[in-house]
Every structure is written in C-alpha cells, then in structure tokens.
C-alpha cells in the first residue's frame, strides 16, 4: 500500500439490555463488517440487519473523544429524520425490512469512527424539545 494513509471504520452493535435475557437464537442487531480499514478516497458500505419485526432503524457514529452523534432514522423503510447525516459523501437506505446500508464515498480521515446501528419496534421521538426547569437550590 506504499505511503497511503490508512484509517479504520469500526462497528459496534447497540442491543437492548433485555436481549441478554432472551433465547440464544435471538441474535439482535447484526452489523457487517465488524471492522473496516480503507485508504483515503475509497468507498465503504456498512450493513445493518435489524431485529426481526423491528420497523425503526437508527444509524449513529462516535468519533474518538466525542459524544454519540445521530445520523439518520428510518421507520418502515422510509427516512423520518436525516438532519444528522452529512449529505455530501454519506448516504443511507433501507431497501427492505431486514436490511439497511450506510455508504461513505469517498472516505476521508475524519470519517474514522465507531458506526452504530440500532433497531426498535416502537419509538418515542419528540418533535420539539422538552422544557427544562432549573434545579432547586437550598441555602
């Protein structure tokens, strides 16, 4: 590979806590590949298989030293919210109820991160921020 800069795109899986207690046959969300190392300006496709029966799918990423960042949300295969998606080089689709892809093309060193996929059978998204009260202060 010569002097080309390599960087890694790592994948993790967000699995509901209760899935630990389910039968072994319930694999939860499946992401492939688990790790991806590529050269600059290449294409990377990350795949996610949601839990069977789940109609809501979310993609996130976490860059080293930063908070988890929302990318896109699908419901019944349709995009509901993609405000977090960098649209210049990133694209995502959910062509079937059992598969979603996140594509990065061309890759750049700043794309090196952990990319996460999560699925849910229900969701409780808010379309406006919750009001926050200041905490009580006791003197």
Automatic annotation (TrEMBL):
<keyword id="KW-0732">Signal</keyword>
<protein>
    <recommendedName>
        <fullName>Ig-like domain-containing protein</fullName>
    </recommendedName>
</protein>
<dbReference type="InterPro" id="IPR050413">
    <property type="entry name" value="TCR_beta_variable"/>
</dbReference>
<dbReference type="GO" id="GO:0042101">
    <property type="term" value="C:T cell receptor complex"/>
</dbReference>
<dbReference type="Pfam" id="PF07686">
    <property type="entry name" value="V-set"/>
</dbReference>
<keyword id="KW-0391">Immunity</keyword>
<feature type="signal peptide">
    <location>
        <begin position="1"/>
        <end position="27"/>
    </location>
</feature>
<keyword id="KW-1064">Adaptive immunity</keyword>
<keyword id="KW-0393">Immunoglobulin domain</keyword>
<dbReference type="GO" id="GO:0002250">
    <property type="term" value="P:adaptive immune response"/>
</dbReference>
<keyword id="KW-1015">Disulfide bond</keyword>
<dbReference type="InterPro" id="IPR036179">
    <property type="entry name" value="Ig-like_dom_sf"/>
</dbReference>
<keyword id="KW-0675">Receptor</keyword>
<dbReference type="InterPro" id="IPR003599">
    <property type="entry name" value="Ig_sub"/>
</dbReference>
<keyword id="KW-1279">T cell receptor</keyword>
<dbReference type="GO" id="GO:0007166">
    <property type="term" value="P:cell surface receptor signaling pathway"/>
</dbReference>
<dbReference type="InterPro" id="IPR013106">
    <property type="entry name" value="Ig_V-set"/>
</dbReference>
<dbReference type="InterPro" id="IPR007110">
    <property type="entry name" value="Ig-like_dom"/>
</dbReference>
<dbReference type="InterPro" id="IPR013783">
    <property type="entry name" value="Ig-like_fold"/>
</dbReference>
<feature type="domain" description="Ig-like">
    <location>
        <begin position="16"/>
        <end position="133"/>
    </location>
</feature>
């Amino acid at each position: 590979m010569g002097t080309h800069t390599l960087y890694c795109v790592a994948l993790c899986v967000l699995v509901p806590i209760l899935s630990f207690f389910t039968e072994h046959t319930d694999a939860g969300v499946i992401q492939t590949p688990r790790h991806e190392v590529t050269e600059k300006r290449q294409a990377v496709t990350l795949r996610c298989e949601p839990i069977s029966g789940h109609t809501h799918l979310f993609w996130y990423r976490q860059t080293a030293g930063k908070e988890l960042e929302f990318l896109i949300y699908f419901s019944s295969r349709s995009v509901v919210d993609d405000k977090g998606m960098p649209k210049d080089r990133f694209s995502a689709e959910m062509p079937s109820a059992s598969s979603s892809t996140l594509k990065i093309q061309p890759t750049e060193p700043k794309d090196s991160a952990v990319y996460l996929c999560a699925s849910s059978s229900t969701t409780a998204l808010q379309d406006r921020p919750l009001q926050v009260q200041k905490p009580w202060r006791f003197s």
